[in-house]
């Protein structure tokens, strides 16, 4: 069967946005590819998102919608990330429990995918919310504009269009999710990598106030960009157009994405080409400063993998490690520690006095395929989908199911309103954090000093997402 098509029998929901027809399989209902905004094409391409009008006829939500990604970030990615053609890229999918009599509405998880703000796909089978639905959580996956279309700074173009897309999606959730069994007063935003960075940006933004109630950042960080001004000039020369709204607007999205990725390869994969921009109405101050002032009533759960970009087996010879290997390992360690892991105590320190609290975790289980707890390997454990396509290729044939059960339970509990059982973090040496899967210890263990500065010696990851 087409992996983009939801299994099961038709099921109909009547929402404020109109009638939506999805698919039901036992206790799980799926409603995929629901547009929350008008397609960003033509005059709307570099404009603020426009709320989608009420569907005049029943909307077929039986398959994943179009993706902003036209070109994957790498030829081989850890996370399976299908590109789906079409213009209606501002859509969302809902995986919800079947109605359960008169019980109260279910808490809601809104998931933001990663991909360096250049790529990624909400249609990934690793983001299937079936385990959350099983555990009484409505899971919503959101598509948003990426790359130049989502985050470039251009004259006469609103900044941070990708974040504006996400905010409009959250408005759609607030207004419609009750029809799908969700509680609009218990919404958690969560994301990984660039998605985790987007979570922190929204938590720090005055525009985020009241739109969500809890936040989870997996391998996120403070990924603010400059809007790619110098990079956009290079891109314009490559495309043969001026680096303006009119110039880029006349180029197909796919062509722009291909040239952006080619430039990224030339400039160095580790460089962030675009990302949230500071200095507008959404992000008036840097994200870390915003976290110190806003979102004080929003509990935050934040963590990283133990190796991120410094996993993998070194290519050593009998004479020892080559200079090239050593340089690659050092570069991966810098990215791991400065971009991802250091963000955890930094966010906790910014929120030290927040009444809602901050909790940290570290995912330490080493994939035998990738040679460590690499970037993205925690995702099938978070979603408890170890049987999903691509998991064996990334994690080997026997990833620990008990670890997925434990990690997913902690996350589902947090989304449902529970306070984590380990101590809050304050961004100081010796903070407590929960470790998942460290070799030689219990599958789940609470310890101190996990994010204290350390000398790391693991080599660079072979693949990324």
Quick structural summary:
27% of the residues lie in helices and 18% in strands.
The description of the largest β-sheet is: 13 strands, mixed
> So what's the overall shape?
globular
CATH superfamily: Alpha/Beta hydrolase fold, catalytic domain
Strand content: 15-25%
Number of domains: 1
Helix fraction bin: 25-40%
CATH architecture identity: 3-Layer(aba) Sandwich
Helix-strand topology string: EEEEEEHEHHEHEHHHHEHHEHHHEE
**DSSP, total strands:** 13
What structural class do helix, strand and pairing data support?
Answer: alpha/beta
Radius of gyration: 21 Å
CATH class category: Alpha Beta
Helical segment count: 13
Poorly predicted ranges (pLDDT <50, ≥5 residues)? 313-332, 455-465
Mean pLDDT: 88
- The CATH topology corresponds to Rossmann fold
Distance between the termini: 25 Å
Report on this model:
This protein is an alpha/beta fold and 465 residues long. It has one domain (9-223, 272-448): Alpha/Beta hydrolase fold, catalytic domain (Rossmann fold, 3-Layer(aba) Sandwich), CATH 3.40.50. It has helices spanning 130-134, 147-151, 161-176, 194-204, 229-239, 245-249, 253-267, 287-293, 323-341, 343-350, 379-382, 391-395, 401-415, and strands spanning 9-15, 18-25, 28-35, 59-60, 91-97, 106-112, 138-142, 182-192, 214-218, 300-305, 358-363, 432-436, 444-448. Strands 1, 2, 3, 4, 5, 6, 7, 8, 9, 10, 11, 12 and 13 form a 13-stranded mixed beta sheet that branches. Helix 4 crosses helix 8 (287-293) and helix 5 (229-239) crosses helix 7 (253-267). The protein is globular. The protein starts with 8 loop residues before the first strand and ends in a 17-residue tail after the last strand. The model is unreliable at 313-332 and 455-465 (pLDDT under 50). Keywords: Hydrolase. It is an enzyme of class 3 (hydrolase). It comes from Streptomyces cellulosae.
């Amino acid at each position: 069967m087409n992996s983009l098509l939801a299994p099961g029998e038709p099921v109909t929901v009547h929402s404020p946005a109109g009638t939506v027809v999805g698919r039901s399989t036992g206790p799980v209902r799926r409603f995929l590819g629901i547009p929350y905004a008008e397609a960003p094409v033509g005059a709307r391409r570099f404009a603020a998102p426009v709320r989608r009008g009420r569907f005049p006829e029943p909307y077929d939500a039986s398959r994943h919608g179009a993706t902003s990604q036209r070109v994957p970030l790498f030829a081989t990615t850890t996370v399976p990330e299908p590109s789906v053609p079409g213009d209606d890229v501002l859509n969302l999918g809902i995986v919800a429990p079947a109605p359960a009599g008169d019980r109260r509405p279910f808490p809601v998880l809104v998931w933001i995918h990663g991909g360096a703000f250049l790529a990624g796909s909400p249609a990934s089978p690793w983001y299937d919310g079936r385990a959350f639905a099983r555990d009484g959580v409505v899971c919503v996956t959101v598509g948003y504009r990426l790359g130049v279309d989502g985050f470039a700074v251009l004259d006469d173009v609103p900044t941070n269009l990708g974040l504006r897309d996400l905010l409009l999606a959250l408005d759609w959730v607030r207004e419609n999710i009750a029809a799908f069994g969700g509680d609009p007063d218990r919404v958690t935003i969560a994301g990984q990598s660039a998605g985790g960075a987007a979570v922190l940006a929204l938590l720090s933004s005055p525009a985020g106030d009241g739109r969500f109630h809890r936040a989870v950042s997996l391998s996120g960080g403070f990924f603010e960009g400059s809007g790619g001004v110098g990079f956009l000039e290079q891109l314009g020369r490559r495309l043969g157009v001026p680096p303006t709204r009119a110039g880029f607007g006349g180029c197909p999205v796919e062509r722009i994405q291909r040239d952006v990725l080619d430039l990224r390869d030339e400039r160095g994969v580790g460089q962030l080409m675009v990302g949230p921009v500071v200095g507008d109405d959404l992000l008036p101050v840097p994200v870390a400063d915003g976290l110190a002032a806003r979102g004080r009533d929003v509990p935050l759960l934040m963590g990283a993998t133990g190796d991120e970009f410094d996993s993998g087996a070194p290519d050593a010879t009998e004479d020892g490690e080559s200079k090239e290997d050593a340089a690659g390992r050092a570069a991966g360690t810098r990215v791991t520690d400065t971009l991802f892991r250091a963000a955890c105590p930094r966010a906790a320190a910014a929120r030290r006095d927040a009444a809602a609290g901050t909790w940290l975790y570290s995912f330490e289980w080493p994939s035998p395929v990738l040679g460590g707890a690499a970037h993205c390997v925690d995702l099938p454990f978070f979603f408890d989908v170890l049987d999903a396509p691509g998991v064996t290729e990334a994690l080997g044939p026997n990833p620990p199911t008990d670890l997925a059960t434990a990690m997913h339970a902690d996350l589902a509990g947090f989304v449902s309103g529970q306070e984590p059982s380990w101590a809050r973090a304050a961004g100081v040496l010796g903070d407590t954090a929960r470790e998942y899967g460290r070799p030689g210890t219990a599958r789940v263990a609470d310890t101190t000093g996990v994010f204290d500065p350390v000398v790391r010696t693991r080599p660079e990851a072979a693949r990324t997402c």
